[in-house]
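User: Continuing from earlier, I have the next pair ready.

Assistant: Great, send them over.

User: Here they are, in order.

Assistant: Folding the first of the pair now:
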Amino acid sequence: MSKIAIFDYGSGNIFNLKKSIESMGSEVHVISNFNSIQYYDGLFFPGVGNFDPAIKKLVDNKNSKKSFRDILTELPIFGICLGMELLFEKSEEGIENGLDMIEGDVIHLPTTMIVPHMGWNNILIEKQNDLLDGIDNNSWAYFAHSYMVRPKKTEIVYAKSDYGAKIPAIIAHHNLFGTQFHPEKSSVTGIKILQNFLRMCKK
């Protein structure tokens, strides 16, 4: 059984994510610092909150003998929506620097779109990886966001969603994984993606 941590930024409801992961047989703890991170097999940055407060909460709680970057390169990390955006260098949502684990930034959705992008939309798979194992092209997922990531290296984008413009929907870079949609709200597609990530945490 894998032992999974969910980082709590101090805002939003992470109950659904916790229950979803627990239903798959994992032990789940909600954490607010990294003091015991070495005891976990995987880490989630949930899709709740706003960019600046979330970054401040993460950086203020890096109270560990190891550097923050060392902590975040030692185990699989799954960022959901905001959680994925935090992995980048900066965001138009705030003025704080991001975690800078992935080159690129986060930009506001084009004004030509209805913002926020909220509801069900399909994901267009561009290439396969372990996170997408068993996921069919054009599968449906639940989105709720006003911003989108803009990676400098396009090869880290594994799936997009068409919302008048192509939005990066799934990224993967070394031990970092992210979805712009919310897998815990995405029915069969989301369940399978979470299962795939938990399987990687056991390796």
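And the other member of the pair:
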Amino acid sequence: MKHERYDNLSISDDYLEYEFTSKGPKGEIPKIIQFTKTLDESTLMLAFGNKKADGTIDDLARDDNKDRNKILSTVVSAVRYFFITHPEKRLFFSGSTPERTRLYRMAICLNYEELSIEFEILGLLTEKDNYIEVAFEKGLEYLGFLVSKK
């Protein structure tokens, strides 16, 4: 992404967990990105948020540390590292709230030209109680997103 990112990214040996520190007017806030298995062996779930004291993710925190774009760019950086060792996998993510899913959609839209060179991006919709995967299009409201390496 065109935005600055955090360079203090700590990466686990299996490339499934990443940690960094957000720095801004609210102080230093530890962040964590995790890729976890799903029922579909080809797909992992991307989870992201504040790192709680017990090591788990708080994906509902609202820090307003004035570094949103830098954080999102750091998450994209972690996705790139993930695909180095897991190029055959795909990632699913959605926001913990509809507002966050909308934020992710807006970030994809703003950076689509750059992201689409490297990644295939699909949106997840519902149709008659079924989930369907469609090519990402600006202007549609998705339940979540699927990303794979081109």
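Worth noting for the second one:
Residues 128 and 143 are 14 Å apart (CA to CA). The longest helix spans residues 98-118.
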